[in-house]
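In this section we walk through a basic example: taking a raw amino acid sequence and producing a predicted 3D structure, encoded as discrete structure tokens. The instruction is simple. Fold the sequence below.
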Amino acid sequence: MSEKSIKKSFFSKIRNNFIAGVVVLIPIGITLYLTVFIIKVSGKIIPKEINPNNYLPFNIPGLEILIALFLITIIGWLSLSFLGKKFFELFNTI
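The resulting token sequence is shown next.
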């Protein structure tokens, strides 16, 4: 018995590779964009008294990065917790 091999055209291979690349890059891009957004916003939310960037002659971006990592971790924890599971169950029933 010989197997029939279905040959895909060159353009269908290119199209499939493009779609696979988009599917991989979109979540990475959204994550990076939201992380940079959180870093920029958290610099404005922190009170001036405790923000070292306001009283030092140079900027230290570490505080904003730590806040962004903390918020991302909290969001991940909420999504895996009981509340997150119930929210996704509710969303799926709608």
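Looking at the output, two observations stand out. The mean pLDDT is 81. The chain has four helices and no strands. In the next section we compare this with other chains.
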